[in-house]
């Protein structure tokens, strides 16, 4: 028998928040080789009742595009590219087209519960400019990420005297941000998340580690994507060096 004191994840998104979502929230979603997960991701997004879903689909040889266009019941705009755009180009494309005043960034590879997603949006509704994932990973503990990447994220936050952010970063999805914050950062800088992160902190935007999502809640990446992990890690480190150079040039 169901315990009446326990609310379901969908029930935790109250009517007021759903009304805000309907009038304010744009969900920006990256889709690439995600035929197996896209329906599950869209199902969770629809529980938020957003005003729109903006999808950036690139280099999809599978049936992802067909499933997207025949599934979602929410207002949906899809930008389809037959070739890979690069790791984070989709962020800038989606942000440029989004109409809401709060944007939630997601990757279709990760099936995140609606209530977890709403936590980031809620933080922006309550006054934050950018709501990041809380990171429980310590540099002294084993991690899915190489220590060098965790160190780079920590050092960048420390460089701008935001020690409390730890390893939280705009690289980590999902995260939410306001349209106003994006206008200060510059939408074009979202293609390099580390630089966008540095610009946000330099401009003293309210960047908040909002919500922790256990790694067990995130689906594993497909083998075809894991093969490219070393090159992705090198790109992330290079982006952080670019961000550090930006910060140092200001000093």
Q: Can you characterise this structure?
A:
With 251 residues, the chain is an alpha/beta fold. 41% of the residues lie in helices and 16% in strands. The protein is globular and about 50 Å long. Mean pLDDT is 85; it is low at 1-10 and 219-227.
Strand content: 15-25%
Mean pLDDT: 85
Q: Which structural category do the helix and sheet elements fall into? A: alpha/beta
Count of DSSP H/I helices: 10
SSE series = HEHEHEHEHEHEHHEHH
Largest sheet strand order:
3-2-1-4-6-5-7
Measure the end-to-end span: 62 Å
Radius of gyration (Å): 18 Å
Return residue spans where pLDDT drops below 50 for at least 5 consecutive residues. 1-10, 219-227
- Report the principal-axis shape: globular
User: Into which percent range does the helicity of residues fall?
Assistant: 40-55%
Strand elements, count: 7
Largest sheet: 7 strands, mixed
At a glance:
Helices cover 41% and strands 16% of the residues.
List keywords for this structure.
alpha/beta, 7-stranded mixed beta sheet, 10 helices
Topology:
Blueprint: H1 15-24, E1 25-31, H2 38-48, E2 52-58, H3 64-69, E3 76-81, H4 89-97, E4 102-107, H5 114-125, E5 130-133, H6 147-159, E6 175-178, H7 179-185, H8 193-202, E7 207-211, H9 223-226, H10 229-250
Parallel strand pairs: 1-2, 1-4, 2-3, 5-7
Antiparallel strand pairs: 4-6, 5-6
Helix pairs in contact: 2-5, 6-10, 8-10
